[in-house]
Design goal:
This protein is an alpha/beta fold and 187 residues long. It has one domain: Rossmann fold. Helix 1 crosses helix 6.
Length: 187
């Protein structure tokens, strides 16, 4: 299972990036989203919330975590409700995910090399501040045209820069990563 976190400052486009990637990737892959919510007001079913947008974009499951509550929305239905079937189905959805797409959680995943990161910024000049102290950055996505096709990450490795219009290209890169993980049989 591949884990990618979309990190960045507030209003940097993290939700829009996740939503766009979901629309591109979910026809071919099982994707779960996990959203970091800072507020205690947590509702998955409220129209136009980030988690609602993720479900509408095709997420197989959408999880929201706040300081006092965790909620989960699964895209599974039951013709005949039996507790054993419900529990087995919930676990199966989570265990069989190809990709876990995290939104937020920067302070928790910044140094974790097992979680790849996409840095979201409004302007490209903000990227170095978010990249600093962050390992395994695979891309920067900015709202403005990039001028520079790559930046250097913490490890000195080149990081590709994409605009929101170029997200299908980033989805191709993620697909290649997913195919490598799936072929290797890693979890």
């Amino acid at each position: 299972m591949l884990r990618i976190a979309i990190v960045g400052r507030k209003a940097s486009g993290k939700t829009t990036i996740a939503e766009t990637l979901l629309k591109i990737l979910t026809p071919s892959y099982r994707v779960i989203t996990v959203k970091h919510v800072h507020s205690n007001e947590l509702r998955l079913d409220a129209e136009k919330t980030d988690t609602w947008r993720f479900a509408a974009a095709g997420a197989h499951a959408s999880v929201a975590l706040s300081p006092n509550r965790t909620t989960m929305d699964l895209s599974i239905g039951f013709e005949e409700i039996r507790l054993e079937h419900v529990l087995e189905s919930c676990l199966k959805v989570l265990q069989e995910a190809d990709l876990v797409l995290l939104e937020g959680f920067h302070s928790l995943v910044a140094r974790d090399p097992g979680v790849r990161k996409i840095v979201a910024t409004r302007r490209l000049d903000e990227a170095p501040y978010v990249i600093k102290g962050t390992s395994a950055v695979i891309a920067v996505v900015t709202r403005e045209p990039a001028g520079e096709p790559t930046l250097l990450g913490e490890e000195g490795t080149p990081i590709k820069v994409y605009t929101h219009e170029e997200l299908p290209l980033l989805a191709e890169e993620i697909s290649a990563l997913l195919n490598g993980v799936l072929l290797a049989g890693r979890t």
